[in-house]
Amino acid sequence: MCSTTPAEHSGLFWEIPPQLTNPFFLVSCGQDMDLIDILWRQDIDLGAEREVFDYSHRQKENELQRQRELEEEKRQQLLREQEKALLAQLQLDEETGEFVPRPASGAEPQTSTTPPEVTQNGLFTEEDGNALSFDECMQLLAETFPLVEAIEATPPPVEPSVSPPASSVPALMAAHQPPLPVAVEKTSQDLEQAWMELLSIPELQQCLNVQMAADVLEPSFSAVSARPELQDPNYNFYMPALTDMEATTADTVCPSGYLGTFEGTLSNTIPPDNLNQMTLKALDLNTNFNADSFCDMFYPGLMNKVDGNAPPANSGITDLPLAELQNTSPLKPMDIPKFALGEGFESRKPEVNGEFPDSDSGLSLDASPNASSPEKSISGDGSFGYSDSDMEEMDSNPGSVDAESDFTDMFSPSFLGDGYQAPSSVGSQSQEAKVRHPKTEPAEGGGHDKPPFTKDKHKRRAETRLSRDEQRAKALQIPFTVDMIINLPVDDFNEMMSKQQLNEAQLALVRDIRRRGKNKVAAQNCRKRKMENIVGLEYELDSLKEERERLLKERTETGSSLREMKQQLNSLYLEVFGLLRDEDGKPYSPSEYSLQQTSDGSVFLVPRVKKTLIKSKGN
DNA sequence: TAATTATGTCATTCG
DNA sequence: ACCGAATGACATAAT
Fold first, then answer.
1. Is residue A198 within 8 Å of residue A453, measured between CB atoms?
2. Where is the composition biased (Polar residues) (predicted)?
3. Which residue is nearest to nucleotide B8 (CA to C1')?
4. DSSP letters for A201-218
């Protein structure tokens, strides 16, 4: 019966009795005669005999008695719930966060965990007919007034574009109910885009993280965290819901005006005591449409923080809360993997595991393998789980290097473990090289970057990253900076090492760090020199090419000049020879005479005949 | 997706 | 013989 729990109706939808507006309810619920009973009892002036409504007095009396019993039971249950609501806010958060039925109310059959199908099929038993009546009412109401009622029932008019929680509910319903107006989906899409843009703002993410850190320690979230919808397209609703959820506790952090809108609408409609109850009920309602999405919508922070299944692109966000968790919570480092693995998180997808930032720096990846294969947990496993992808994920949080460092520091002791043995430097390197990459590939391959965060990912590529050796040094708690280890002169380095009592693993690591660091610098210098050599050679090549061109040009010019001079000489010769005359005043024949110049500059006319004679004699 | 580039690392040689 | 620099070769990430 939908009208048997006044307290449940004291809130949002009380003004709209579904059983009166929806004929389907009367039919499907199968308790129309009970309703008539009630109506008859409530209004004695009905003017008609009871027999008009009843099949028989006997049946009605039985039903009436049963109805009274149920009402009494409901009333008691309500009292218990109200007591609990007044007891502690924390408990209420717990319930909403856990998404499970209220623990104390044994008389309450099924509420939030009731499968949606049960409430929808209309096959009410007498017990869950009462227990689910309000859910049914909510569903019917939602079906009858999908969007309008949800918003209009809240007195202060809320603008959909700035009220993610209010409008996201119908959006989620739309995923399950095709008859919804198209405008609703469009609105949700716009909201999605708007949220993507909003979430891409680092400041806003940080703002959200601060709040998330405050709720990290909420004890009951395992049921929420275990769900696998990491790629849920409704992820965009997480953060709005998060802000909504946390607006109740941390209004001061998030400046956005919409944070309190949904809260405000509820609080304006119902008394504060019923607020959480109403939230729970509304939650039940929406489990019919998209339970996962709705859960995510209301408890995103918990998911992000606890199970480490934060949407990968959001990995940068999760770093900070995790780090803060380490600092603020009584949890010990070793508790984290136990916590993550033992409380329902084992259902995580494998690739999601790798996606968790810092995961194999001691949390999830290396925590469990540690026990099974200790030798891999030594420096051999990429030096305590630090790998290229790890570095990438660690550095993924812009400006949170400190947080990451704290994180590493927190986990290093547990990482070393009792079975830790000093690796030989050579062995550690080779083994490290073997193990590191296969382990990181799944993490890389399992990326679920969401569009809003791709910019972050690109951005963080440019971030300065802690080198692997720096991470290793942190992991082994080397008391020196990598810079000192590498750049100190030999004497100073030896002196520094002698002052500190380091175990063999630390010594080996320090030696490797120094060797690698030196070699890294040497390689850089070598490459620099090589490049300089290449540049110098290229410059020299250009110079030589220019020289060659110049010489070729000069040779051409010289040749042409030589030809010109020869031509001039020939002309001069002919001119001079033409001016010569013999005793008879006749010109000399060029075939018989020629002009020849001696070394002292004198010019003589030499008869060619002699020449030919000499030549003939010589022959 | 393939090609190219940048960088880190190891092994080896050189001074 | 030892040590550190230099460098070739390779692997991997980034472009």
1. no
2. 108-123, 367-376, 422-432
3. A520
4. -HHHHHHHHHHHHHHTT-
- Return the residue matching tokens 């099924």: A110
Give the residue among A328, A281, A280, A325 at the shortest CA–CA distance from A307.
Answer: A325
Q: What is the DSSP letter of A582?
A: -
What region, left, alpha or beta, does residue A354 occupy, with left being phi > 0 and alpha being psi -120 to 50 degrees? Answer: alpha
Residue (of A210, A238, A214) closest to A224 by Cα position? A238
Span A588-616, pLDDT tens digits: 888 888 888 899 989 888 888 655 555 55
Which is higher by pLDDT, A341 or A143?
A143
Report whether pLDDT(A524) > 80. yes
| Residue A164 near residue A237 (C-beta atoms within 8 A) | yes
pLDDT at A498: 86
Q: Say which nucleotide is closest to residue A467, CA to C1' distance.
A: B8
Strand B proximal to A525 Cβ, under 7 A: no
Between A572 and A43, residue with greater pLDDT: A572
Using CA atoms, how far apart are residues A58 and A186, in angstroms rounded to an integer? 54
Count how many residues are written for chain A: 619
Question: Does residue A519 lie within 7 Å of nucleic acid chain C, judged by its CB?
Answer: yes
Q: Is the CB of A520 under 7 A from strand B?
A: yes
Put simply, whether the predicted model's pTM sits higher than 0.85 gets the answer: no
Nucleic strand C within 7 A of Cβ A523: yes
Angle value at C-alpha A468, between A465 and A469, nearest 5 degrees: 120
CA distances from A257 to A79, A120, A253, A301, A445 (A): 35, 36, 11, 19, 39
Distance A401 CA to B2 C1' (A): 35
Residue in the block written with tokens 């305590």: A384
DSSP code for A273: G
The residue assigned the tokens 């790629």 is: A231
User: How many alpha carbons lie under 13 Å from residue A149 in its C-beta half-sphere?
Assistant: 20
